[in-house]
Each structure stands twice: as C-alpha cells, then as structure tokens.
Amino acid sequence: MRAVxxxxxxxxxxxxxxxxxxxxxxxxxxxxxxxxxxxxxxPHHRVAVVFGAGVRNGQPSAVLYDRVASAAALYxxxxxxxxxxxxxxxxxxxxxxxxxxxxxxxxxxxDDDIVLDYAGHSTYDTCYRAREIFGLRDAVLVxxxxxxxxxxxxxxxxxxxxxxxxxDRRPYAAMSWFQLREFGATLKAFWDLFISRPLPxxxxxxxxx
Length: 209
Known about the structure:
alpha/beta, Rossmann fold, 5-stranded parallel beta sheet, two-stranded antiparallel sheet, 6 helices, 49% helix, 16% strand
C-alpha cells in the first residue's frame, strides 16, 4: 500500500510540473509564426487590440505605456487603421482604457481612430468581446512578448484570427515574475477555453467601422 501511495504521489508531482510546461510550450509553438517584430513587416489589419496593464495615479505603467507606444508605431506605419484599447475599469479612480486613450492622444493618434473597451478584465474577456461586441474577425494584438503567445492563442481559439506585435521597448523590473506567472495563466486559459467557458460582460454590439 505504501508503495502505491508513493507512486501516486510521484505521478501527481510529475503532472503538476509537466502540465504547465506542456501548455506553455504549446501556446508558444502556436504563436511563433504569427508574431512580427517590426511595424513594416506586420501584415495590415484594420484593428490593433491593445491590452491593458497597470495604472498608478492616472499614469500608465511602463508596461502599459510601451503597449500603447507600440500600437502607435503600427498605426503610423500604416499596419493598422484603428486602435482598440481594452482594459479594466471596474474600480473607482482606476480606468485603464481612459489612460490608454490619453497616452495615445499624446502620441499623436487621432481620437476618431481610438476605440475603448472598458470591460477587458482579462485576456480572455478582451478577445471574447473583440469578436462579440466589436465585430472583429482578425486583428493585430499588441502586448509584451511574455504575454503575446497566450493572447494569440486565446483570440484564435475564440474566433479572432490574430497575429501579434511585441511591445517590449525596455527592460521591466518584474519580468521574471511576469514570465513565471504565465505558466499558471496559460493553464487557466485552457480551462476557460475548453472547460468552464465563462461569459464576460457583454452588451449591445459596437462594430468598429
């Protein structure tokens, strides 16, 4: 009996270690051919989806600023026509999309070409709403490389044929933590996509013209 228990514990330990590695490896392989590293080589899409990140005292974090700046570079290069800024605004005095809009305006993006999604509470929610609310069937996703493969995988699985443009423009202090967190986040992505299938906040369709 004791030997059986030891084997079960060993098997469980192997699964706990290997499953996140396999999931992460799968999304990285899936996304590899869909990532473009310069605005000039990124194929034209009507919309770039820009994922929210931290805001402090009404100002974007370095990660968020670089996402908006990278999307602006795509816009100026003619790779995209509109920027969909998707982020969290659930709490008083915390509004990622509004800060993203102000940042894009300061970078010279016309207000008419900025669309805000105030209910992008997660990567899954942003991709789901990009299709269901904003009518996207394809897009360029803009976020840092550590997050980009998961975002590409989720959006494609939800019916948005997505490619990606990495927003890494400097070293980030918490990058090791971001990369480690992706293992758990990738497992959750598989759970959401194929098992729980949560329904995000929805509403009236607002197709991007």
